[in-house]
Amino acid sequence: MKKTALIVAGGQVDAGQLAEQARQVRSEGGLLIAADRGLEALRRLNLRPDAAVGDFDSVSEETLAFYTADPAIRFERHRPEKNESDTELAFCIAREEDVKEVRILGATGTRLDHVLANVHLLKEAFDLGMDCCLLDSHNRLRLAAGRTVFRRAECPYPYISFVPLTMEVTHLRLSGFKYPLYDHHMVLGVECGHCISNELAEEVAVLEFAEGLLLAIESKD
Amino acid sequence: MKKTALIVAGGQVDAGQLAEQARQVRSEGGLLIAADRGLEALRRLNLRPDAAVGDFDSVSEETLAFYTADPAIRFERHRPEKNESDTELAFCIAREEDVKEVRILGATGTRLDHVLANVHLLKEAFDLGMDCCLLDSHNRLRLAAGRTVFRRAECPYPYISFVPLTMEVTHLRLSGFKYPLYDHHMVLGVECGHCISNELAEEVAVLEFAEGLLLAIESKD
């Protein structure tokens, strides 16, 4: 089985989703990593991470004292002026531990600069050879780099949308979806009608394209 | 003065911000355009748009009846299977009316596919020759296509972040900011440390770069 890590970042975290994801990752022998203020979300559920990384400037003294007292937790405190984001530093730990699949909670919230920077981390994870998704209570985002198979049994949400990460995505083909596409040339900023709020029409649906990078976003209202 | 339009889209809309923006746009002789479910936000404040566009499938009968009864409102009802998004259709109206500056409210919310598609509309507005920004209660997003000047008096929020829209942004230079940059090569997905949560250090700060497209995001926590 692929080694998994759950990274808890500093954005909005749904407590029920965190409890469920942490349980799942633990049951698979995976890692739980707190990125900076993600520690607070873990503290509220009394969950112990394997590692915590960040400058911790926005983490309370109480939470910090609670976790630093535990010698089993790998603590990496960085200076606030570091170049990497806290989630990028968490990636480094995941990579050292030979993790192949990363799920990120707390990547979304009110600050759109943080949301977009976290969406772009999917590209960094991809370059590092790790499967990665961002999860929140309404969305699952993944990067599709070519052919991707969607199975109804594995889709958590009713809608599937495709948004380009590159300026163009060529020869896009959607089969097994409610709104199929054949050889579509996708241009960033120009909606094609079938790429937002699509749905699975069959048990297995396939996305294919030639060049570019695409975000696959499963969501619910 | 440049002709302005306020487009109210179907995402989350802060009532106070809508009231203030509508007042401002009206005082400048600008247009108020509802994109589909944005009509509901206008109805709650008893604001009358100049135009409304969409399939209106998610607008209540009551709201629809209220506005369609008003002959002064330009109503464009499209079939649900249309190719364009409702906000794109609102762009078409703005363009016909010779609008040069567009502000969009209701572009953000829980559905990340909608948020990202709306962010990408900044590229479409740019290609149409319109200045455009997305506004919500925590963020103002704009597309920077080269040299951009930031004046403290015009910045609504304390933080300024820069996130690439293209895979690379070359020769990036930030001057007058708390964390300056000189000749930085920006790569999508790789954080540079100075591009998230930067701040103005002087009354006037300047962003410059050679190639690529960049999102400038002013925000508050």
Q: Care to give the gist of this entry?
A:
Two copies of one chain form a homodimer. With 221 residues, chain A is of the alpha/beta class.
Structure description:
Two copies of one chain form a homodimer. With 221 residues, chain A is of the alpha/beta class. Chain A is 25% helix and 32% strand. Chain A has helices at residues 15-27, 38-44, 61-68, 86-96, 112-127; strands spanning 4-8, 31-35, 51-54, 74-77, 101-105, 131-135, 139-144, 148-151, 159-164, 168-175, 181-187, 204-208, 214-219. Chain A has a nine-stranded mixed β-sheet, sandwiched between helices. In chain A, strand 6 and strand 7 form a beta hairpin. At the A-B interface, helix 5, strand 9 and strand 13 of A face helix 5, strand 9 and strand 13 of B.
Q: How large a portion of the residues of chain A is in β-strands, by DSSP E?
A: 25-35%
Lateral arrangement of strands in the main beta sheet of chain A: 4-3-2-1-5-6-7-13-9
Low-confidence runs of chain A (pLDDT<50, min 5 residues)?
none
Helix content of chain A: 10-25%
Provide the succession of SSEs of chain A: EHEHEHEHEHEEEEEEEE
**Estimated radius of gyration of chain A:** 18 Å
Query: Biggest interface pair, residues each?
Result: A-B, 46 and 46 residues
Largest sheet of chain A: 9 strands, mixed
Average of per-residue pLDDT values of chain A:
94
In one word, what is the shape of chain A?
elongated
What's the β-strand tally of chain A?
13
Number of helices of chain A: 5
For the record, give the distance between the C-alpha atoms at the N and C termini of chain A, rounded to a whole number: 33 Å
What would you call the structural class of chain A?
alpha/beta
Oligomeric assembly? homodimer
